[in-house]
Design brief:
2 strands; mainly alpha; 5% strand; globular
């Protein structure tokens, strides 16, 4: 039986397709690339909000063009929405830009593309781990000997390292969200990038 016909037979029986789970090193490489893309998204969103605020008279030159109070909350909400839209819309199609570069695809445990609700659930689960780890990273820059910062990094590290012992090599947040990250064959990745 060929790989294609095996995948079709598995799909008919309700088994996940035979694409291999993504190895941890590829996930980590995609995360580094993704962090650069998210940083650019945050900067562009912040610039757009700042420009709109200055044009609307909400930020003044005497305050150093800084947003304060409710305007600062608007900035934070705009950045949060931009990040949520980027990931949830990309994951509904199976891939973010970084995932395309590393030949990764997100799918449900049944081999289909995730719904918007499932993508948002995955995003919320990841955010519960990434936000404290990000804050801890900045804290550790200023306080390198502090144990609390190191403890805040542990849940994210444990969630990722879980994929080394998980039977399907999936991270904790993928397991909880009912998704899986798979490695695409080289030929599939080229076709996926052009569509």
């Amino acid at each position: 039986m060929t790989v294609a016909s095996q995948a079709e037979a598995d799909a008919l029986r309700g088994h996940p397709p035979c694409l291999p789970s993504a190895p941890l090193w590829r996930r980590m490489a995609a995360m580094v690339y993704e962090s650069l893309l998210v940083a650019a998204l945050v900067l562009l969103t912040g610039l757009a909000v700042q420009l709109l605020a200055s044009l609307g008279g909400l930020a003044q030159p005497d305050s150093g063009w800084r947003l304060a109070g409710a305007n600062r909350l608007l900035l934070q909400a705009s950045i949060t929405v931009a990040i949520a839209l980027y990931f949830s819309l990309s994951w509904r199609r199976g891939q973010t830009l970084a995932m395309r570069a590393w030949r990764l695809r997100l799918e449900t445990t049944h081999g289909t593309l995730p719904s918007g609700r499932r993508a948002l659930l995955r995003l919320a689960l990841i955010a519960l781990l990434v936000v404290p780890a990000t804050v801890a990273s900045f804290w550790l820059i200023e306080h390198p000997r502090d144990w609390a910062g190191r403890v805040a990094l542990m849940p994210l590290a444990a969630a990722l390292l879980w994929s080394l012992i998980d039977r399907d090599r999936q991270a904790v947040f993928d397991r909880l969200a009912g998704t899986r990250l798979v490695l695409l064959p080289a030929a599939n990745a080229a076709r996926s990038a052009t569509s």
